[in-house]
Amino acid sequence: MKDSSVRIPRIGVMDSGMGGLSVLRELLALPYQVEFLYYGDLANSPYGEKSTSQILDLTRAVCHFFISKKVDAILLACNTATSAAALKLREELSVPIFGMEPAIKPALLAHEKEKIALLATAVTHREEKLQELKADLGAKERILHLNCDGLAHLVDQGDLQGARNLLQNILRIPKEEGVKALVLGCTHYVFLKNEIMDLYPEAILHDGNQGTVRHLANSLHLDRVSGRPTFELHFSSPEKPNGIRQFALQLLERGL
Ligand code: DGL
């Protein structure tokens, strides 16, 4: 019998745009009765080419929106926002803040003695969070940094051909160097797995989505509320709200 005294948890999931939907998709596969509120800050995307303080301000504003909706926890489903803002917002806000981490550790473990490549935004590459992770893992020499400026924006636009063209260029270096393990360090790129595999069939892809979802579910004890999750979608862009919603639903169901 269901315990009716258990409150249904409400969790805010944010990203600069559409990328966090790749995480929401996995959250919605959980057998738990949770209300997810998704916020894509499309009016300000991409975050990955902005300054740290701009990203902090934008992420903070989204967190305040979630707090006004009485969420129990917030997931920054964006590596860039996590790198630039998570530490500060955890100090400022009283709701638990979860974030993303590029799956460097599992990739290094799975490809012992090999180099791995990290595809991420300029902000994720340069922020201290990644430098600390690399130092902790003693892996400075084993990571090839691939700057993917522009790629997240093409995903937000649904421009698959443009993304493919840019990827062709980005993947040139790991292909030439024979680096097969690719870490998708931006939630947008998870929607490009088929294109990446098509352009580089020998590649082995790693992303942090499942690890994050597992960590969130365990930390918040979501298994106490068995059932089906629900979701609401919010976007900051005032343009074409119906088109954006349709595109977001397509990403959740079928991908890009
Ligand atoms: N989805 C975001 C991430 O995981 C970044 C995209 C952007 O540049 O806004 O890093």
From TrEMBL:
Instruction: Locate the residues binding substrate.
Output: D15, S16, Y47, G48, N79, T80, T187, H188
Q: What is this protein called?
A: Glutamate racemase
Q: Name one GO molecular function term.
A: glutamate racemase activity
Q: Name one Pfam family in it.
A: Asp_Glu_race
> What's this chain's function?
Provides the (R)-glutamate required for cell wall biosynthesis.
Q: What class of enzyme is it?
A: isomerase
What does the record give as its pathway?
Answer: Cell wall biogenesis; peptidoglycan biosynthesis
Tell me what reaction this enzyme catalyses: L-glutamate = D-glutamate
Membership in a protein family:
Belongs to the aspartate/glutamate racemases family.
Q: Which HAMAP family match?
A: Glu_racemase (MF_00258)
UniProt superkingdom:
Bacteria
Output the PANTHER family linked to this UniProt entry: GLUTAMATE RACEMASE
Organism (species): Leptospira langatensis
One of its GO biological process terms is: peptidoglycan biosynthetic process
